[in-house]
Automatic annotation (TrEMBL):
Ranges for domain Transposon Tn7 transposition protein TnsD C-terminal: 204-576
Pfam families cross-referenced by the UniProt entry: TniQ, TnsD
Cross-referenced InterPro entries: TniQ, TnsD_C
Protein known as: Transposase
Boundaries of every TniQ domain copy: 5-159
Domain of life: Bacteria
Source organism per UniProt: Stenomitos frigidus ULC18
Lineage: Bacteria, Bacillati, Cyanobacteriota, Cyanophyceae, Leptolyngbyales
């Protein structure tokens, strides 16, 4: 039984706790420590995902608060990897750590198969180390600092430094090395990470710290991929039915993260491959990916790890429900009484379509997703009106004091729809009222030639419905009427074809065949126009606009053409690649514009004012070429020309 096992510190690795125990007991042979802790002198001192934890817990005194669950969740790297594993894979990894299957852990977690190499050295934050020494009297290894991709301490925003303890060292694989023995603070007190990507690295560290502090959330790879596609759909990078627009996704992702940063994080993307890690994340999962890549994608989609994992597991573009009934004729109009929403996706644009069916018989659909409260009152299409609505129509139809327009207003439709449904319900034409028209009566007063086996009432009803449709939609052609009034058209075609042919709209003239596009000629014209558009964007007064493919396309009014058919426009593509501004070049142009503005205003700003007005992001501001331009701009603005007042001698403006 272990009698003096140290109490773990906050966020301390179990490896670090065992190392402090080893320093306390001072066994002459390091294998004695392994035997006492894990019952096996050949056990390996694993840093991130240790095994034999059930044996370790059994060695602790009875009543010890340290259970396997507490050790895994609070003092190993399991909570960092588990959320991005398959549910069964995460369960097996837990069982391996609890038992003695150490060699299979790194295979199970996907670390061995990942192209992201594990850390070579144990690492520490110098500020954390100083605080630990002052408060606790000793150093210890923090979990957060041992994760791949963590270059910044999320608590102090300073560089994470390498210790002198190598993780993969055959000589120390059976020995726990404490932070007191491996930490050496640098002489320099400047720990800031002067890196243009520090903001991104800090957010990654903060997300990783959040994952470590929470119980492992294991939604499963299918749920993760589904959430990614839903968030991509909100940015128009995928359809809501799940089809990802991979080209647009790749372009925007590479604009968000520079190749230098992705290489620094070992997350380079092979843009020529359709199976690169980014595409595998958003498609149906066939294996786990390194958590660092998931965190990069979450950042790109505008989420932190916390906000991403708190998203609902089931996509509900129209909310939870119950939903409102929008039947104006019902006494429960605009009340949440609908409990079922049938979800489908449009074949045309992939957006979700919700169909809401009420007990009153009213069925309507809406194209989503809902983005505001006003959207819940919107109807895209009424699919069925129901008995309550039809009874209200019958009542209002025979009320001579109510006009046709008023009926339409009260029932929430237009007058043409009222006429069509009145005909379908075989209501009296013309409707009773002070101003009765005999137009419909005259239309239907012609003698009817009754076909054998067809009742005069049916013939009269179907002819009346067809004439009403022709009157309501006078501009509709044959195909449109046939499609919209298929029931009436089919009956008349079978039973009264001669009359139907006489009352069809005239045939429309065939449109001429489409003219084939001369892509070569269009390419040359568009390339010249792109050059002119870039000049116009550069010389346009006011705040500068970055010269991008999208900006040039919008300036030309040909953005859709360029986005969809750039492969057919090689000259234009070459011109655009030459015209597009890098982020550095655009930053320099913004600095130049801000300098001119301050000169016209006669103001000598401070450096931070110039940076803010130019709208420079931290990662751009940190670039050497931008730093040099800022220094020159500040110096040039310090030498202000003399300002002359009309009635006074020349004097320099005071600041």
């Amino acid at each position: 039984m272990i009698g003096c096992f140290p109490d773990p510190y906050p966020d301390e690795l179990l490896y670090s706790v065992c190392a402090r125990f080893h320093d306390r007991v001072q066994y002459p042979n390091k294998k004695n420590t392994m035997r006492e802790l894990f019952g096996d002198e050949a056990a390996i001192a694993t840093v991130g995902l240790p095994s034999n934890l059930q044996t370790l817990v059994s060695m602790l005194p009875p009543g010890s608060p340290y259970t396997v669950e507490r050790l895994i969740n609070n003092h190993t790297l399991y909570p960092f990897y588990a959320p991005f594993l398959d549910c069964e894979q995460a369960r097996q990894l837990w069982a391996d750590m609890e038992g003695a299957r150490g060699p299979s852990i790194y295979m199970r977690s996907g670390i061995m198969a990942s192209t992201i190499q594990p850390m070579e050295w144990l690492r520490f934050c110098p500020v954390c180390a100083q605080e630990d020494k002052e408060l606790l009297g000793e150093y210890y290894w923090h979990r957060i600092h041992q994760l791949p991709g963590i270059e910044v301490c999320p608590e102090h925003n300073v560089r994470v430094l390498d210790s002198k303890i190598r993780i993969q060292n055959p000589q120390t694989r059976h020995e726990f090395v404490s932070a007191d023995r491996g930490t050496q603070l640098p002489r320099s007190r400047s720990y800031k990470l002067f890196n243009s990507h520090q903001a991104v690295l800090l957010r990654i560290a903060q997300d990783a710290a959040w994952l470590l502090k929470h119980q492992p959330l294991i939604p499963g790879l299918d749920i993760l991929a589904k959430r990614y596609r839903e968030l991509l759909a909100e940015r128009d990078l995928a359809t809501y039915s799940g089809r990802v627009r991979v080209s647009e996704l790749l372009n925007q992702f590479c604009e968000c993260y520079s190749p230098e940063l992705l290489k620094y994080l070992q997350c380079q993307i092979d843009v020529e491959s359709q199976h690169n890690w980014l595409f595998r994340l958003v498609r149906s999962p066939k294996g786990s990916q390194h958590p660092l890549r998931h965190l990069l994608l979450m950042q790109f989609l505008g989420h932190t790890a916390e906000s991403f994992f708190k998203l609902p597991q089931q996509f509900k573009p129209f909310g939870k429900g119950p939903w409102l009934c929008l039947n104006k004729a019902a006494d429960h109009f605009r009340k949440p009484v609908i409990t079922e929403c049938e979800l489908a996706y449009s074949k045309e644009h992939g957006k979700p379509i919700g169909t809401f069916s009420c007990s009153c018989g009213f069925v309507y659909s809406r194209t989503g997703p809902d983005e505001s409260e006003e959207d819940t009152l919107r109807i895209t299409k009424i699919r069925a009106f129901g008995s309550v609505w039809e009874d209200a129509l019958k009542t209002l139809w025979y009320d001579s004091s109510v006009s046709l327009r008023e009926i339409a207003r009260q029932l929430g439709v237009d007058a043409a729809t009222i006429k069509l449904h009145a005909a379908a319900l075989e209501l009296e034409f013309p409707r009773p009222g002070k101003r009765q028209t005999t137009r419909m009566s005259r239309t239907l007063a012609r003698p009817l030639e009754v076909e054998p086996g067809v009742s005069e009432a049916s013939l009269h009803r179907y002819r009346r419905e067809w004439l009403t449709a022709r009157q309501v939609y006078p501009e509709a052609g044959r195909t449109a009427l046939k499609k919209q009034f298929q029931r009436v058209y089919t009956w008349l075609y079978r039973n009264d074809r001669e009359w139907l042919e006489a009352h069809l709209p005239p045939r429309m003239a065939k449109s001429p065949p489409p003219v084939r596009v001369d892509w070569e000629h269009r390419d040359i014209e568009l390339a010249d126009a792109a050059r002119q558009a870039a000049i116009q964007l550069q010389t346009r007064p006011g705040k500068p606009t970055q010269i991008t493919i999208a900006a040039v396309g919008r300036q030309l009014g040909q953005l859709a053409l360029i986005q969809r058919h750039l492969d057919k426009l090689p000259v234009t593509a070459q011109v655009l690649s030459e015209l597009v501004e890098t982020r550095e070049a655009f930053a320099l142009r913004r600095i130049q514009w801000v300098v001119e503005c301050y000169r016209e205003e006669g103001i000598c700003p401070q450096r931070w004012q110039l940076v803010r007005r130019a709208g420079l992001r931290p990662e751009i501001e940190g670039l050497p070429v931008v730093q040099k331009a800022l220094d020159e701009a500040v110096e040039s603005l310090k030498i202000m020309p003399l300002q002359y007042d009309r009635d006074r001698s020349p004097q320099r403006l005071a600041f």
